[in-house]
Design a protein that fits this description.
Two copies of one chain form a homodimer.
Chain A lengths: L7 H4 L3 E5 L8 H11 L5 E5 L4 E3 L2 E4 L11 E4 L6 H11 L3 E4 L9 H16 L3 E3 L6 E3 L4 E2 L10 E8 L2 H14 L3 E6 L8 H9 L6 E6 L5 H14 L2 E5 L13 H5 L2 H12 L2 E3 L2 H13 L7 E6 L2 H13 L3 E2 L4 H10 L10 E2 L6 H13 L5 E7 L6 H14 L4 E6 L5 H9 L4 E2 L2 H22 L20 H7 L7 E4 L2 H11 L3 E6 L12 E5 L2 H18 L7 E6 L5 E10 L3 E8 L4 H4 L2 E5 L4 H9 L2 H5 L11 H17 L3 E11 L6 E3 L2 E5 L2
Parallel strand pairs in A: 1-2, 1-5, 2-4, 5-6, 6-7, 10-11, 10-12, 12-13, 13-14, 15-16, 15-17, 15-18, 18-19, 19-20
Antiparallel strand pairs in A: 3-4, 8-9, 8-11, 21-24, 22-23, 22-24, 25-26, 25-28, 26-27, 28-29, 28-30
Helix pairs in contact in A: 3-4, 6-7, 7-9, 10-16, 11-16, 12-13, 13-14, 14-15, 18-19
Chain lengths: 691, 691
C-alpha cells in the first residue's frame, strides 16, 4: 500500500540533525546523540546547540542554518518555548520532517497547548511533518537508526514493530523484548500527536520488509474511520495486534434509548478493531506473546491442535487451556495412532494429548511431533514439557527445531520451568519458535493465529447496503420516524395520532382491529412504565375506555410531560421481540446494537454490537452471539422465526444510521419477528436527533 | 487444627530408609539417595537394595529387616511387583509411613490397578500410611528433608507450600519458584493416592509454622464434603489457593431437568471452593503470582487502591487492570493531595493514579507512597514504573522497601522491563515484596487479597436450615412431590389428578377457578412443548374442552408416553417466574441452582450455583449474580417482588436436597414470585429419584 512521501524521511533520512545535542551525559540531549551514533546509522549526523563546541568527535553548530547537506530529518530536544523558532529555521533550511522529544506542551495544560498550536502552525507553514512533541523518538534496527534518548541498550533487530502513544511503555517494551528473546524492527513513540498520529504510521511501518507484525499501544484513535480503512489494507499483508487502554473513563452520558445506554466507547473499539481485522490484546504481555507467534508461525488452517507431552499434568493443563480458548483437541487418524505406537512405550497415551511418559527421549519428541503434524486432522501442534528427568530440556529443543522449521503448520512450545530450561529457551528463540513457560500462554498464541485468520475475513468483507435508491426525497425530516423508516424500507406498524376518543375509534376502523393504544409524548421514553400502553383492544367501547385510561395514567405519572394524544396502531401478531438500535460514536460513527428486546434490555444485556454499515459476517456474528439471535432459528416449541427479515432490518437500519450522522440515536424496540417468511415489523421506534 | 498422628512421620521422621537406593547416577534411586543426603536432613538415612554394597559412604542393606533404629519412614523406588513384599517387611520392622515413588500401578491399566490394590491391602494390614504410588515424593525445606528424585537443585526455603496431583508439575514448580524468586516450605506429590489424598495433607501442611500459604494443583477431589470441612478450618489461619484442572472432560449425562443440564462438575467445584474459602486460580502462573501476595502481604481492608507511577501510560494501564478486576481507584483526601503537591513538581498529577513524571527521584517514590498509605481512603497501593531515565530501578526499589515494610496495608510493585530491572527485582524478592513485570498481574495479586477477605466470610458462614421438624413422618416417598415439598414447607399450587373431564370440573370447583390444566405424565418433561398446558380456564365449558384438547395434543406429540390424565391446579396470580433446582454432584452432594425460569433456561443461562445446605451469604450471592435475582427488588414498572419468600424456598429446597441424596434432581420451574410480602408458589415441580 502506498506510503505518504512526506513521511519517508522519518525512517530513511539522508542526514539527521540533533537540535539540543549536549555534552552533559546526564542530559537527554547527550543520550540522543550517543544513541544515534551508536546505532550505526549510515547517513550523516549533525549536532546543533546554541553553545557550540564539539561532541563525539564532531562539531556542534550553533544554528540549524549552518548545518551542511545532506540533512532531511531533525530530532529536537530543546525547551518548548524555543522550538517554534528552531522549526522555522528547519523550514528555511529545507528540512521537512522533525521529531520533537521535548515535553512542556499540551500535556502540562493551557499554556503548553498554546505552544503546541504555535509549533503546528509553523510546521504547516513550512510543510514540515512532526512526530511528537513529548515523545521518546523512533528507531529502526535494520536501517539502522535510533533517535530515542533512552538509556542503552536499544532493542535487538527483529520483526515486531511497535507504535505507541506512551513513551514510558516504549522504554518497557524495549527491555521486555530483550528479556523475552524477540527483536524489534521499528519503534515509534507518538507523544502528543500534534501532527502525525497512529493511523499515519500504519502504511510506512507495514512497508518495512523486516516487519512481520505491527503491535500498537493506543490510548485512543483520532480518526476512527480512517484508521479502519488504513488498517484493513495493512492486515491483508501483515497482522496488527493492538492494546487499547483507558477503558474505564467513567462519566455518564445523557441517552435517550437502551442502545444509547449500553453502547459505549469500548464496544465501538471492539467493533472497529474487528472491522479493521486488528487483533485486540487485553494486556501488554498478551500482545507481545501473541505478536511473536504471528510473526514467526505459518498461517493456521483451523482450530484442531495436537498436544505432545511427557506427563499427565502438563497434558491436561494444555487441554484445559486450549478448550477454554475455543480451540479443539485434534482427533488422530488410525495411521497416526499406529505410527505413535511404533515409537512409544506400551504405557504411553497415543491419543491426544500424546503422553510419551517421563522416559521420552529427544528423538521421541521429534518423531512424535513429525507424526502428528502429518495427520490431516491436525491444524496446529503444542509441545509442552517440564525438564525430563533423564535428559536436558535443551536436548529436546534441539531435536524438535528442525521438525518445526520444516512444518507448514504452526507449532508452539511450552517449556515448563525457569532456570533448568534456559538452554532450551535460547535455542528456541534463536530459531524463532514461539516458546512460553505456561500452557495457557502457548494456547493463547495459537488462538491468536486462529483469530488472525477469522479477522482477515472480517477485514475483507464488504458492507451490505440493501437500499439503492431512497423511496422519498432526501428532504424528509430525520425526526419524522415513520417517513425515514419508510424511505429505508423498514416495515412499521402504521400508527396514527388520535386527539380524541372518537378519532381513536375512527383510526382503529382504518388500520383494522384489534389495536394497540400508546400515549403520544416526545418526553415519555418508556411508555409502559407509566401505564401508557394498552394492547389488543377489539371493539369501540374498549378503545374509548382505553383512550381515557391512558391519558389519565400518563398524566398522573408524568404531570409535566407534553402529551399530544394517543397513538393508534394495528395489533401485530405475536412473535419473538428483538431490539435493533444505532447510536453515533464520536470516533467511529454509527454503532449498531442487536439483542433481546423489551423493557429489560439493560438488565438482561443479551446484546451484541457492530459498526454501520454492516457486513454479512458481522451481522451473522451479532445474531449468533446473542440468545435472541440464536433463538430465531427455533427452540423447542418456539417455531423458527423470520431470521432473514431481522437481518434485512438490521442492514437497513445500519445503512440509515450511516447515512444520517445527524441521528444521534435510533432504536426499534420491539421489532416483532413473525414466523418464517412472514417478515418482521417495527412496533415501536424512538429517534433522537443530535442537537 | 489437629493433625492425624499417623501422618507425622512423613514430615518429621527420626530415620528414613530408601528402598531401591542405587549406585547408578542414571537411576532415580541414586537421585533420591543423593537428594536426601544433600538436603541436610538431620535424622538417620538408611539404604536398602537387594544387591547390597555401599553408597555415599554408607552401607546398603539387602533387606528392610536388617535396618537399625531409628527408622519410621520408607521411601520406595523398586519395581511395582516387589513393593507388596517390601511393605510387609516395613510393617514387620515397625515402619508405618511409606512414600512409593515407583510407577506401574493404576495409571497403566487393569494389571497395575491389581498391584495397587494389593499394596493397599498390605498397608492396611500393617497400618502403614502410603503416599503414592507413582509420585515424585515430598520435601520440607526447613526441617529440612528431601525425598524426591528430581534432578537438583531443589527449591530454596520459603513460605509457599505445594500439594500436587502431578509429579511433572512439581518439577516445573520447583524450577519456576527459583526463577521467580520465591521459596517453598513443603511440597508433596500425591501420585495415585492409593491411601493419602489431598484432603489428608491439608492439616499436616497447615500445621507447619513456616508455611504461610497452601497452593494446590488438583485433578479432582476424592471426598468433596470432607475436603470442604478440612479446608474451611485451615483457611481461618492460612490461605489456600487451588488450580483445578480437567475442566473439559466432556461426556453427556442423562438429565431430567434444566438444573441437571446446566449444573456440572465445574460449577460444583466453584461452589465447593467458595464454601471452603479456597481461592480458585485459573492458571499455574496466576496461582503462584497470587500465592506470593497472600504469603507476604498484610490482609487488606478493602478494594480502594492508590497507584503511584512516573508516567501516564503505566498509570492508565494500572487503572484499567484494577477496574477490570473489580478494584477501585481510591479517592484521595485534600490533605493527601496537599502533601503530594508539597513534594512533586507542578506538572505532576496529584490525583490517583499519581503521575510523579519521568523526573521522579527514588525519594519521591518513597515519600509519595508513604503519603498515600497514610490516607484513610486508601486500602492498598500499587507502584508501577519502567526504569526511570535518570535513576536505576534498583535505587527506586531500595527507597520504597522500608516504606512497604512498615506499612500495615498491602503494597505490590510492577517493575516494567526485564534486563534493566534485575537489581530492583532482586532487592524486592529478598525483602519478600510481591513484584511483577506487568500491571495486570500486580492488580490480580491485590484482587486475590480482597478475594481472600471475602472468602474468609464464606468459609465462616453457617448454613441456614429453616426446617427444624418435618411436618410429616419421614416415611413419605421422596418421589411424591407434593408431600415432600409440603413436609419442607415449600408452598405449592395444589394439584389434583383428573382422569375425566367431569373430575377436572369437580377439582376446579374445589381449588377455585380460574384453573390451569396440565398433562399428567411422568415421561413428558417439558409439558408446554407438547401442547400439554392450558392457562386461565374460568368456566366448566372451557375446562371440558381443555381436558380433551390437552390429551389429544400430548398423545399426538408423544404417542408412546404413559399419560395418566390431566392435573388441575388453581391459577396463581401473575408474577416474576424464577427457577430453583437441585442436583446431586458425585463429589460434593446437593448442588443448587437459581435463575430466570421458564422454558428458555438453557438459552438465557441467567443462573447461579451453590452447594446445599446454603448459607445466607451464598444465597444472597446467587440472587445478586443473576438478573432474575436482582430484578426481585423491582425494576422500572416492575414492583418489588417477595424476595424473602424466594430466599426461604431456596433454603428449604437446599435443606431437602441435602437431607435426601436419593433425590437425583428436583426442580421448581417456575416458582411464581408474588408482590412483596405475598409469598411465592411452586407452580411446577419435577423430581427424579436416583436409580
Amino acid at each position: 500500500m502506498p506510503v505518504d512521501p512526506s513521511l519517508i524521511p522519518f525512517f530513511n533520512p539522508h542526514g539527521v540533525v540533533i537540535i539540543g545535542a549536549s555534552h552533559d551525559p546526564s542530559k537527554l540531549g547527550y543520550g540522543l546523540a550517543n544513541n544515534l551514533i551508536r546505532s550505526n546509522y549510515q547517513g550523516v549526523v549533525h549536532f546543533v546547540n546554541i553553545k557550540g563546541g564539539e561532541l563525539l568527535g564532531q562539531p556542534i553548530y550553533t544554528n540549524v542554518l549552518e548545518v551542511p547537506n545532506p540533512v532531511d530529518l531533525a530530532a529536537v530536544l530543546i525547551p518548548a518555548p524555543f522550538i517554534a523558532d528552531a522549526l522555522r529555521q528547519c523550514g528555511q533550511r529545507g528540512i521537512q520532517a522533525a521529531i520533537i522529544g521535548s515535553g512542556g506542551f499540551r500535556e502540562i495544560g493551557a499554556e503548553g497547548a498554546k505552544l503546541e498550536e504555535e509549533i503546528l502552525e509553523v510546521a504547516q507553514q513550512y510543510r514540515i511533518r512532526l512526530i511528537g512533541p513529548n515523545c521518546i523518538g523512533l528507531l529502526d534496527t535494520h536501517l539502522p537508526i535510533d533517535t530515542t534518548f533512552l538509556p542503552p541498550p536499544g532493542p535487538t533487530p527483529g520483526d515486531v514493530a511497535f507504535i505507541s502513544h506512551s513513551g514510558a511503555i516504549c522504554a518497557a517494551v524495549i527491555d521486555w523484548a530483550r528479556g523475552q528473546g524477540y527483536g524489534l524492527s521499528r519503534l515509534v513513540s507518538l507523544g502528543n500527536q500534534a501532527d502525525v498520529n497512529e493511523t499515519d504510521m500504519l502504511a510506512p511501518i507495514a512497508d518495512d520488509p523486516y516487519t512481520r507484525v505491527l503491535a500498537l499501544y493506543l490510548e485512543g484513535i483520532k480518526d476512527g474511520r480512517r484508521f479502519i480503512e488504513q488498517a484493513r489494507q495493512v492486515v491483508r499483508e501483515k497482522p496488527i495486534i493492538a492494546l487499547k487502554v483507558g477503558r474505564f473513563e467513567g462519566g455518564q452520558r445523557a441517552v435517550a434509548s437502551h442502545t444509547g445506554a449500553l453502547a459505549g466507547q469500548e464496544s465501538a473499539y471492539d467493533a472497529a478493531f474487528r472491522r479493521a481485522g486488528v487483533l485486540r490484546a487485553e494486556t501488554s504481555e498478551e500482545m507481545f506473546d501473541q505478536a511473536r507467534a504471528l510473526a514467526w508461525c505459518p498461517p493456521t488452517e483451523g482450530r484442531r491442535v495436537a498436544v505432545i507431552t511427557n506427563a499427565g499434568g502438563p497434558g491436561v493443563t494444555a487441554a484445559d487451556a486450549l478448550e477454554s480458548l475455543g480451540l479443539e483437541l485434534a482427533e488422530f487418524s488410525g495411521a497416526t495412532n499406529a505410527a505413535l505406537a511404533g515409537i512409544l512405550p506400551p504405557a504411553a497415551s497415543l491419543h491426544n494429548p500424546v503422553d510419551m511418559l517421563a522416559s521420552a527421549t529427544p528423538d521421541q519428541f521429534a518423531e512424535s511431533l513429525r507424526i502428528v503434524l502429518d495427520d490431516p486432522g491436525v491444524d496446529n501442534a503444542m509441545i509442552i514439557f517440564p525438564t525430563p528427568p533423564m535428559f536436558t530440556a535443551g536436548a529436546v529443543a534441539k531435536a524438535i527445531i528442525p521438525v518445526i522449521h520444516s512444518a507448514v503448520k504452526p507449532v508452539v512450545v511450552a517449556v515448563m520451568g525457569e532456570r533448568l530450561i534456559q538452554e532450551a529457551v535460547e535455542h528456541l528463540r534463536a530459531a524463532r519458535i514461539p516458546e512460553y513457560r505456561f500452557a495457557e500462554r502457548a494456547a493463547a498464541a495459537l488462538a491468536a493465529l486462529v483469530k488472525r485468520g477469522e479477522l482477515l475475513e472480517y477485514a475483507q468483507a464488504e458492507p451490505v447496503t440493501p437500499v439503492q435508491t431512497l423511496k422519498v426525497s432526501e428532504t424528509f425530516r430525520v425526526s419524522d420516524v415513520d417517513s425515514i423508516l419508510d424511505a429505508y424500507g423498514i416495515p412499521t406498524a402504521k400508527m396514527e395520532l388520535a386527539q380524541s376518543a372518537d378519532e381513536a375509534v375512527n383510526f382503529a376502523n382504518q388500520v383494522g382491529m384489534p389495536v394497540v393504544l400508546k400515549v403520544a409524548s416526545p418526553e415519555i421514553s418508556h411508555k409502559s412504565d407509566v401505564g401508557g400502553v394498552l394492547l389488543n383492544l377489539g371493539d369501540e367501547a374498549a378503545i374509548r375506555t382505553g383512550y381515557k385510561e391512558i391519558l389519565e395514567s400518563a398524566r398522573s405519572a408524568s404531570p409535566r410531560a407534553e402529551i399530544q394524544g394517543v397513538h393508534v396502531q394495528r395489533m401485530i401478531p405475536s412473535g419473538q421481540e428483538v431490539i435493533i438500535g444505532a447510536v453515533q460514536d464520536p470516533q467511529f460513527g454509527a454503532q449498531m446494537m442487536f439483542g433481546s428486546g423489551g423493557t429489560e434490555v439493560e438488565g438482561l444485556k443479551d446484546i451484541a454490537f457492530g459498526l454501520a454499515p454492516l457486513t454479512m459476517l458481522e451481522a451473522e456474528r451479532m445474531l449468533e452471539s446473542t440468545w435472541a439471535g440464536r433463538k430465531l432459528k427455533g427452540f423447542r416449541n418456539l417455531p423458527p422465526a423470520d431470521r432473514d427479515a431481522v437481518l434485512d432490518v438490521l442492514f437497513r437500519l445500519a445503512q440509515l444510521a450511516a447515512d444520517h450522522p445527524e441521528i444521534a440515536e435510533i432504536e426499534i424496540n420491539p421489532l416483532r419477528v413473525l414466523p418464517k417468511s412472514q417478515g418482521a415489523v417495527a412496533v415501536d421506534v424512538r429517534i433522537q436527533v443530535a442537537n
